[in-house]
Design a protein that fits this description.
The protein has one helix spanning 30-36; strands spanning 2-14, 17-19, 25-29, 43-48, 54-62, 69-72, 84-94, 103-106. The chain has 109 residues and is mostly beta strands. Strands 2-6-3-5-4-7-1-8 form an eight-stranded mixed sheet. A hairpin with a 5-residue loop joins strand 4 (43-48) and strand 5. The protein is globular and about 45 Å long. The relative contact order is 0.39.
Length: 109
């Protein structure tokens, strides 16, 4: 049997921009994506600490070192600039297999 487990978490990061007139997605600093092993177009779950909204979209990379987090398209309706969010990715594993601890990156704002 397969179970879904947390693969990585970007914890308490600020939204740097929103753009409704763009395909729905979440832009993430490329360095953070690398540290968390999040791939381009990988599904991510977003948990908005500021307003309680929760939603699913996909990731794309922002410029490395930019510390940018952008929410676009329909996702832009779920958060405002400066909102604190958590970005999580998950993976499927066999319930009997040993799996690694999730990668967690806590951001100091």
């Amino acid at each position: 049997m397969l179970i879904t487990v947390l693969k990585s978490k970007l914890h308490r990061v600020k939204v740097t921009s929103t753009n409704i007139d763009y395909d729905g997605s979440c832009g993430i600093d490329k360095d953070w994506m690398g540290a968390l092993d999040i791939k381009e177009f990988e599904q991510v779950h977003i948990y908005n600490i500021t307003n309680g909204n929760r939603f699913i979209t996909y990731a794309f990379s922002e410029e490395a070192g930019s510390k940018k987090i952008s929410l676009n398209g329909a996702a832009a309706h779920k958060a405002n600039k400066e909102d604190l969010i958590i970005v999580c990715s998950y993976m499927m594993v066999n319930k009997d297999d040993k799996f690694q601890e999730p990668k967690i990156l806590k951001i100091e704002n």
